[in-house]
# Entry
Amino acid sequence: MALTVVSPRIRGFICTTAHPVGCARNVEQQREVACSHQSDMPERYRVLVIGASTGYGLAARIAATWLYGAESLGIFYERPGEGIKTGTPGYYNTAAFQRLTKRDGYKSLNINGDAFSVAVKEEVIARLKAEMRQVNVVIYSLAAPRRTDPRTGVVYNSALKPIGAPYTSKTINLNNDTVIEMTLPPATDEEVTGTTAVMGGDDLRLWVEALLEAQALAEGACVVAFSYIGPEVTWPIYRSGTIGKAKKDLERTTSQINQLLQTRISGHAWVSVNKGVITQASAAIPSVPLYLSVLYRVMQEKGVHEEPIHQMVRLFLDHIGPRQTPTLDSEGRIRLDNHELTPDIQAEVRRRWELVNTDNLRELSDYESVKLDFRQLFGFAVEGVRYDEPVEVEAFLD
# Structure
């Protein structure tokens, strides 16, 4: 093992390095938020998080652990550091999470592998039987570009495209910070099918069926899948596009799973529609970084801006935690995007969206915060971290 100075290698919203100390500090800060809302610890509260290393999945695992002292098993697909080559931020996040849980006396198990595969599902069930028995909550927070169907071996790829017609809209050229107009061609039938296979509800159904068969879900357990709807300004590329079609499939499947769980274990399955935030996945969606830049400024001015950890604390304390009954919309979904989509906030976002250009980008939006959030996903620009000091980039998980 060797020490090295780690610098960000960023082009647009792609970063090929990660800082282990910065990532660790991010996890510590989220832990501090959860600890400030600590609740009564129920007896043996156990959580399985599928997609546990970044974004909302990581925040959900942190919230459950330091709100309730939950035991958790996290599944992720991350690359460790090797020599002086850094690992992925998700690997460093999980290493930091594990260190903190050990220090604070909480049980955490980790499986690094392809959550879509049969092998990982079997490994999860074996670990649960050996070390946790049954779980009370399953969080499904996968965001992946491709999936191999375990039954057929067919590889599906996701695409970020509109359906039926080209889509023209404003976006940010992330290499020179200019507001430009871009046009995306419509998706092919194959791209629509592929995106639904990757991001829809099929894999979640396989997970729930496997967990039920193994009797790994406690009586009354709940399954929560994360989704996003967003405002009308992004619907052509999101809600009405390939991603949206996949998310609608996820919602339909979750409703069917809800009926199955009610029958088998008096349990439930819900979709949680979360607020728009910058993640490694959302940063790649055209128009979304510009929309989020405007949204951040408006929500900050209104005093209702939230990061993922604040959303996940709300999810558990108000909806799915011990002794909680969720508040659902007319389609049976938990809505953590309720502040984002309030009429006054969206009216102001639409007004600024029509006006925003390169010259007034920083006046009408908070683009700098969006860029900062993106850097911090990889452990950079985190307050209190000395980036000129060499660090060890190899980390190890039990």
About this structure: DSSP finds twelve helices and 15 strands in the chain.
